Amino acid sequence: MSEETLEEIKYYSEMYPDGIHKKSQAKEIFEKLGYKLVNDNEYFLLYEYQIKENAEFENDYLHISFEKKDKAFIKTYGDDNTPEIITMEELQAINKQVEELGWNKWNKK
Asked: Would you kindly state where each structural domain of the chain is located, as residue ranges?
């Protein structure tokens, strides 16, 4: 992770502390980390990272998925969805996505 990328992550976090903005800063941060948004519907958001240059199989990708109904996320690898460790840079992108989804607001039921 370059210093420039880390500075951009910090910049976006400080620039949009309340998550109110027109463009998804989380998506931009994920893209800086090499992820691509491959699905965004009413049920989930899915970011994908291609591990191998000529990826042919599901095992060639990492996924970070946001389950909108459950307000949960997970990072997985491969076709069996093996859980993976989340890096600090990914956590910053995840936190920004959580903020943009409005999940960081305390909500008593």
From this structure: 3-101
